[in-house]
Amino acid sequence: MQQPVPVDLGNCDREPIHQLGAIQPFGFLLSLSADWIIRRASANLPEFLGLEPDAALGSPLIELIGPDAVHLLRNRMTLLRGADAVERVFGVPVTGGRRFDFAMHVSGADIVIEGEPSAETPVSDTASTIRAMIGRLDATQGLPAFYREGARQVRALTGFDRVMVYRFDPDGSGTVVAEAVGSGLGSFLDLRYPASDIPKQARALYVRTPFRVIADVGAAPVPIVPTLDERGEPIDLSLSVLRSVSPIHIEYLQNMGVGASLSISIIVEGRLWGLFACHHYAPRCPGFERRSVAELFGQMFAFKLEARERQVLAAYETAARNASDRLLAAIAGDKQLLDNPDFLGEMLATTIPCDGIAIWLDGRVALSGQTPPADAIPVIAKRLNAMTPGHIFATDHLSGLLPIAQDWADRAAGMLALPISRSPRDYVLLFREERIRSVNWGGDPHKPATWGPNGARLSPRKSFEAWREEVRGRAQPFDDAELRVAEMLRVSLIEVVLRLSDDAQEERRRAAERQELLIAELNHRVRNILSLIRGLVRQSRDPGADTATYVDMLEGRIEALARAHDQITQDNWSAAPLRRLIETEAAAYLGGRASRLHLEGDAMLLSPQAFSTLALVLHELMTNSAKYGALSDNGTVAVGWHCNAMDELVIEWRERGGPPVNAPTRQGFGTTIIQRSIPYDLGGRAEVRYQLTGVEADLIIPAHHISGGDAATEHRSAIGPDMRDTMTSGETDVIDGVALLVEDSLIIAMDAEDILTSLGARQVVTANSVNQALVELGRETVAVAVLDFNLGDETSLAVAEALRARGVPFIFATGYGEQLTLPDGLGDTPVLQKPYTAPNLSRLLAKVLGKA
User: Do 252 and 273 belong to one domain?
Assistant: First the structure.
């Protein structure tokens, strides 16, 4: 099995990296003096700019690439901030008409500029792409799904065969926690790799340069001319984008069978949390701009990950703070309660899971649960007194601290010690049982290294077969959050114990200060989280509503807009029927009691803007009626509409037969929507009357927002979108096997992939071009295919012909509506009008698969 993690062996943390191989050949490098005179250049400069390197040395850069390009680079250099800052600029035209992407940084007294040809198809609308990618991350539930989605996004963006999320452990080893991999390749998920595979110096370098690419493992590096400067120093390539890697790493990759690799650092709170580790089994080099987008996504992924971890930590620490307060209140006035380990263990286990507890207080021992023998507690306390100056101490391998602990490792393999007095110290000790577990390593981590062909250096291992190790004598480690909570509990316990000592007042003051710091930190984190969400939901808040009602209200308003948007987009963002809108909003409340809604009016179409605005207004009217009005009882709602003399649409809402109505004492956000949305957004009028017999509302929509409908439209609209979008269990099993999706838009492809999976596809193979689709057809046996007809500057007709030759059913998809004309021989192929929806895909795929 191949090793999935890229290794970049450099020198120590802040030492310069002088690679004798110099740079990778897909770009060139220039070293300039402060006055922009060329001091050194890579030997491949003629290949890119048509000049001899020796001729360029000593010349001003302006003679090489032109004044406009130099002016742009000078301006971007002013944006550099910090010792490790790198600035980039894309698509810069140079002398000769070619365009290059440049990276710039300062190295000592020199300016280093690296260039590579701009991609022929640059990334379009980068902001929208990143926003959509982050939106998909936000939609995930739980960290495992968050990791998987991150890997999917990076693979879709970079096109690498395999993308993994690799998480480091405190000891430097790491685990593949998620992956997105092409068809026909094995899985590395959950495999663990020793710390030696990515040494400490390489991990430090990943923090300084969070993005590294090796475009072709077999490519020969290009030297820098001259090798040494006038001071006899080699060039510092620590921050170089093109920097080649060590021969050991190249040998390592060759042992894996990898042709290209890419890594994106995931840095959380200033530390290296992990990597996006990408492998390709042939040479591959995404364009510089696309690589920069991937790097930006990695930074946003880390930010979102940090926010999620902080949210979980804040909730945990809040609960722990409450438990600490309860514990303090219970024992504050009765020291004897500390002699009751069962009580204390029950209280502490609610915040820090443990299997047993021991109390060492005034030379006495009290035990509860799974613990070492009583005569071992003084030995443990003596060992702790010799090593920890009054701080908590935790270990998941107690026998590594005390060899005699091996005798009872089955019931007390891990320990958390809370000192609760001055020297000689008393302790509360929490124990965890041995956790026998199997670790799946990516190769034997204990196998000794061998001398290899790289001179007097060690050769990387060549075997990456999965190797399982059974771990004994260790417990579940105490994590950082538990250690912070333990410190909080220690503070509380110290206050109780020192309450009875001569110097209790001074120590209590110190404990209170530490406690206040913990509370301030917790308060700071909670405030940050609340600030993030307040802007999103403040307009929907209702001081009089409970949490459940508030959430339902917010979700209802969002869903109302979503339903309206779905109905509008079904007709390519054109006018949609009023009757359909009313029926859809009523369906959620009436169910099988449709007779309680009376609709009367001619066929009428609303513009998309009016349709969306009226959707919110009708949603609020329906909600109020279902909660307090006619629909909450046995009454009815009559909605009629007509055009007045000014051709305005007049909608009359009348409730009858419900409970008596009283005007509200305050105006909430829902009432504001009803009364102000139509005047403000559409220039119309709205009036609401709270009659004793029922709520009445008159809504006036200006003429330019309406148009007449027809009977066919009204008949189609009578089937609400809730009914159209509801599939039976049989319809979710339309596809049996592998589905091929050819779609050139990343975000659209991801949505369609999710829908095809929900329709029963065992696997969805995606392609964004004809060539890639034909390659996938050669790899997989496809049961059905969905082809986006227009793929940039080509069509999917060649893929359709290949599918037809194999007898594979397929459908076309298009965003051009009725304008698509299919060639002879394919005229009877079903065509799906975008956007992709589960009902539409289910209907057309069932047709071509003979399941309709």
Answer: yes
- Give 717's Cβ-side CA count (13 Å radius): 26
pLDDT of residue 6: 38
Q: What CATH number is associated with residue 249?
A: 3.30.450.40
Q: What angle do CA 736, 739, 745 make, to 5 degrees?
A: 150
**Tokens 């009313």 found at:** 582
Q: How many domains does the chain have?
A: 4
The reply to whether 744 and 823 lie within a common domain is yes
Same domain assignment for residues 644 and 593: yes
Q: What is the Cα–Cα distance from 798 to 821, expressed in whole angstroms?
A: 16
Q: What is the CATH number of the domain that holds 553?
A: 3.30.565.10
Q: Which of 689, 723, 757 is the last residue of a domain?
A: 723
Q: Please list, in sequence order, all residues whose beta carbon lies within 8 angstroms of the beta carbon of residue 118, skipping any fewer than 6 positions away.
A: 90, 91, 92, 99, 100, 101, 287, 288, 289
pLDDT digits (tens, 9 = 90+) for 413-445: 899 998 887 656 788 899 988 876 544 555 555
The reply to whether 342 falls in a domain is yes
Report the relative pairing of strands 810-814 and 831-833 from DSSP bridges: parallel
747 pLDDT band, cuts 50/70/90, is low
Residue spans of beta strands (DSSP E) within 287-406: 356-361, 364-369, 393-395
Is the bond leading into 424 cis (omega within 30 degrees of zero)?
A: yes
Same domain for 371 and 355: yes
CATH at 798: 3.40.50.2300
Rounded Cα gap, residues 42 and 53, in angstroms: 7
**How far is 820 from 815, CA to CA, in rounded Å?**
9
Buried b (16+ CB within 10 A) or exposed e, 612-635: bbbbbbbbbbbbbbbebbbbeeeb
Specify whether the backbone of 591 is left (phi greater than 0), alpha (psi in -120 to 50) or beta.
left
Query: What's the one-letter identity of residue 394?
Result: A
For 144, phi and psi rounded to 5 degrees? -55, -45
Contact 834, 803 (CB under 8 A): no
Residues 562 and 506 in one domain: no
The Cα 695–Cα 689 span in angstroms is 6
Both 655 and 765 in one domain: the answer is no
Strand arrangement, sheet containing 761-767: 761-767, 737-742, 782-788, 810-814, 831-833
Exposure class string for 559-596: b at 16+ Cβ within 10 A, else e: ebeebbebbbbbbeeebbbbbbbbbbbbbbbbeeeeeb
Burial grade of 451 (CB within 10 A; 0-12, 13-18, 19 or more) = exposed
Q: Is residue 762 within 8 Å of residue 737, measured between CB atoms?
A: yes
- Judged against a pLDDT cut of 70, whether residue 535 lies above it is answered with no
Q: Cβ(701)–Cβ(730) under 8 Å?
A: no
- Specify the pLDDT at position 537: 45
pTM above 0.70, yes or no: no
Contacts of 732 (CB under 8 A, 6+ apart): 758, 759, 760, 842
Both structure tokens of 841: 């895909």
Last residue of a domain, one of 693, 723, 753: 723
Look-up of token digits 């068809």: 183
Count of C-beta atoms within a 10 Å radius of residue 316: 16
Neighbouring residues of 704: CB distance < 8 A, sequence distance ≥ 6: 607
Q: Which amino acid is at 149?
A: E
Domain assignment present for residue 398? The answer is: yes
Is residue 527 scored above 50 in pLDDT?
A: no
Q: Are residues 713 and 830 in the same domain?
A: no
Distance (Å, whole) CA 247 – CA 227: 18
What is the extent of the structural domain holding 790? 731-848
Q: Which residue matches tokens 């404990």?
A: 511
630: in domain: yes
148 and 285 in a single domain? The answer is: yes
Pairwise CA distance, residues 54 & 43, whole Å: 9
DSSP label of 775 = H
Six token digits for residue 594: 């449709």
